Amino acid sequence: IADGTLHYASAAHPLAHCLRPSALIDGFTEATGTVLGILPDQTFEDRRTRLEVGDRLIIYTDGFPEARTPEGEFLGDDRFVAMLRGNAGLAPDEFCRRVIDEVLDFQRREIRDDITMVLLQRNA
User: Is the pTM for the entire model greater than 0.85?
Assistant: First the structure.
């Protein structure tokens, strides 16, 4: 924890993003195994990455980029990433609330898939 090293294993998609004070890093993590629960006796490789002071790691379910309007238009990765960038200056709790609200507005408040987000921020 002291140096910001993050150990992780990832069950396929979606890959986490990292909001740095200077930029958004798409696909900050990488898949280390197949989708969880599909294969018996599956294993996942341990990977490491480093969070710098001020970095925010955003972990989310695929319901965000796969959100869609009642007419079937998908939000997509580009619009989702734009939402992340557009709310980057907000406090962590407000950031999550705002992004979730924007996705719900896009769907006209008709929830079609799970939308779960976790934001981890390194402060020191």
Answer: no
